[in-house]
Structures are given as structure tokens and as C-alpha cells.
């Protein structure tokens, strides 16, 4: 079966899918993206992802290329044509194609691309064992709340993590405080069992999984504190974990040379991860692929 991508109004073979060299996403990273999970044929937290996509576009003054209903239709078709039951869908929208010039072009329609890929999350053994993080300076810009394709600092941080055989890089500001990770949000559990994650602001991306986990933690009667925490506090925490569309809630057992807790995934994140799977299983939204 051939992979199919959606590019500016057409479904094309993935290997032939292309945008113009003067696409502003390519030249200026002038665009935004979303990554939504497909679990058992259903999009996960679809409304949350479309809300964030609309917000990212609004903040950058890029027009919505189509209505939300249109986005749904195309996303569903991409999932169906690629027969993705468990995987991710990637949506990218840029300010469009125009001769290279910094100011916004006039009367230029945005470019939109959607792809879908099989495979969601790591193997169960990864979460069962827990993962390690390296700390890395957060050198990003001041609007990390916008999900732009401008990911170079994230790429460099993730590469540093990979070169040290770590799962993720936990990003630390000049004040020693953790913002998030290179492609996930960061959490700690305090000695008295409270979950702590950085409050929403321009300093972090408002993760859709982060929000879902806050709701699930609330429902479990866990205390959630949205406040900043330092790298030192994280290293001394009872538990640490990261969250994203594809890692769900992933237990962390080491940061740099510091072992977290007893070196095994903690009970709170293990339980929260299980509740996240319950949530995935209970999804009742539209079925995009399968039966
Ligand atoms: N990354 N923080 C950053 C910097 C991210 O890039 C992501 C997501 C998150 C978590 O957001 P969510 O829970 O909505 O996935 C936090 C995606 C998955 C990516 O870039 O592939």
C-alpha cells in the first residue's frame, strides 16, 4: 500500500509530495503544526488540537486555510487512505508561497500539508523501565506557547539527548527553573504526593496531554500544583515524568547523574498512565478508520 499525503488540496503519493522552494515555512519557518494521535481509529482529543491550531494561527496572523469541518474531513481522509488505526497525524500550515521578503505577502493563501504515520508510543517495556533525561539550556524564543515549526533549539536539545542515550532533554532557563522538554511537558511528584507542572504562559507549549492528565489527576483526587520548579527540585523529587501526544505519561528514572526515587517508575505516574489508557479506550468520538 502506498502512503498518501495531502498537499494544498490534493492527495498525492507521499514520495512525490512537495511544496515550493519559496514556501515561507521552508525559508522563514513561518508556520505552525499539530500532531494528533489516532488510537484504535479515533483521533485523541481532537477538539483540543484544533483549538490549539487555530490559536497558533491567530497569534501569527495566518489565515485558517479551511474551516474546522474541512480540517476534520481532510484529516479523516488522510487517516483512512493510509489505513492508520494506531498512529499519528501531522498537520502543517504555513503563510504560503511568495518571493522571499520578510513582511507578510499580500493575497497569498496559506499552505497546508497533512500526513499520517503508523505507530503510536514506545514499546511497553520503555515505560515499564522508565527513561532518562539530560538537562539542557532552554535557548528558545519568547513565544513557546505557539506551536511553530521553528524547532531548531528543540532539535539541538533532542540530539544532545540522543547522543547521550537519553529519551529527552529537560530544558532549563538561566534562573535554574525547568520550562518543559524538547518535545514534551515536564512534571514532578513531590514527597507529599502533589503533581507539579509549570503553569501555562509564553514559556511553555500548552500540551493537550498535559491538560488531559490534569483532568485525570483531579478525577483521581490527586493534588495538582501548576507552578515552576527548579532542576534541583526535579532531581530530588519522588517521581518525575514527561507528557506528550505520543509518550502519554512517561516515567523518568534518571536526570543527568541523579537517580529519581528508587530508580524505578513511581506509583503515581504508573497509575496516571493507566488512567490515560482508560481514557484512550473510552474515547467515543468519530471513528476515522476501521470499525
Ligand atoms: N510535541 N512541549 C513541546 C515543546 C512539544 O513539542 C510538545 C509536543 C509538547 C506536548 O504537547 P502535546 O501533549 O499536545 O503533544 C510539549 C509533539 C508531539 C511533536 O513535536 O512531535
Automatic annotation (TrEMBL):
Q: Does the keyword Calcium apply?
A: no
Query: What GO terms fall under cellular component here?
Result: cytosol
**Reactions mediated catalytically:** L-isoleucine + 2-oxoglutarate = (S)-3-methyl-2-oxopentanoate + L-glutamate; L-leucine + 2-oxoglutarate = 4-methyl-2-oxopentanoate + L-glutamate; L-valine + 2-oxoglutarate = 3-methyl-2-oxobutanoate + L-glutamate
KW Ribosomal protein (keyword) present: no
Membership in a protein family: Belongs to the class-IV pyridoxal-phosphate-dependent aminotransferase family.
The record, for PANTHER family, names: AMINO-ACID AMINOTRANSFERASE, AMINODEOXYCHORISMATE LYASE
Against NCBIfam families, the record matches this protein to:
PRK06680.1
Q: What does this protein do?
A: Acts on leucine, isoleucine and valine.
Q: What is this protein called?
A: Probable branched-chain-amino-acid aminotransferase
Q: Which organism is it from?
A: Rhodospirillum rubrum (strain ATCC 11170 / ATH 1.1.1 / DSM 467 / LMG 4362 / NCIMB 8255 / S1)
Give the classification, highest ranks. Bacteria, Pseudomonadati, Pseudomonadota, Alphaproteobacteria, Rhodospirillales
Amino acid at each position: 500500500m502506498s502512503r498518501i499525503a495531502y498537499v494544498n488540496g490534493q492527495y498525492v503519493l507521499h514520495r512525490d509530495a512537495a511544496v515550493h522552494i519559496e514556501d515561507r515555512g521552508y525559508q522563514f519557518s513561518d508556520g505552525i503544526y499539530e500532531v494528533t494521535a489516532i488510537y484504535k481509529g479515533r483521533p485523541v482529543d481532537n477538539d483540543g488540537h484544533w483549538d490549539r491550531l487555530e490559536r497558533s494561527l491567530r497569534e501569527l496572523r495566518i489565515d485558517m486555510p479551511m474551516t474546522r469541518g474541512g480540517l476534520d474531513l481532510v484529516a479523516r481522509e488522510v487517516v483512512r487512505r493510509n489505513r492508520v488505526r494506531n498512529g499519528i497525524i501531522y498537520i502543517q500550515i504555513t503563510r504560503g508561497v511568495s518571493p522571499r521578503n520578510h513582511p507578510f505577502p499580500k493575497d497569498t493563501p496559506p499552505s497546508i500539508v497533512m500526513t499520517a504515520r503508523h505507530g503510536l508510543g514506545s514499546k511497553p517495556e520503555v515505560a515499564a523501565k522508565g527513561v532518562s533525561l539530560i538537562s539542557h539550556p532552554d535557548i528558545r524564543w519568547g513565544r513557546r506557547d505557539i506551536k511553530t515549526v521553528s524547532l531548531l533549539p528543540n532539535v539541538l536539545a533532542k540530539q544532545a539527548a540522543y547522543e547521550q542515550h537519553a529519551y529527552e532533554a529537560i530544558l532549563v532557563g538561566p534562573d535554574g527553573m525547568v520550562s518543559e522538554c524538547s518535545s514534551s511537558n515536564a512534571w514532578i511528584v513531590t514527597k507529599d504526593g502533589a503533581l507539579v507542572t509549570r503553569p501555562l504562559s509564553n514559556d511553555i507549549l500548552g500540551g493537550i496531554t498535559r491538560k488531559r492528565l490534569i483532568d485525570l489527576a483531579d478525577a483521581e483526587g490527586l493534588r495538582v500544583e501548576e507552578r515552576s520548579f527548579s532542576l534541583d527540585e526535579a532531581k530530588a523529587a519522588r517521581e518525575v515524568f514527561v507528557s506528550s501526544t505520543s509518550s502519554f505519561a512517561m516515567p523518568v528514572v534518571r536526570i543527568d547523574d541523579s537517580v529519581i526515587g528508587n530508580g524505578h517508575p513511581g506509583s503515581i505516574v504508573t497509575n496516571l498512565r493507566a488512567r490515560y489508557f482508560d481514557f484512550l479506550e473510552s474515547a467515543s468520538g468519530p471513528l476515522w478508520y476501521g470499525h
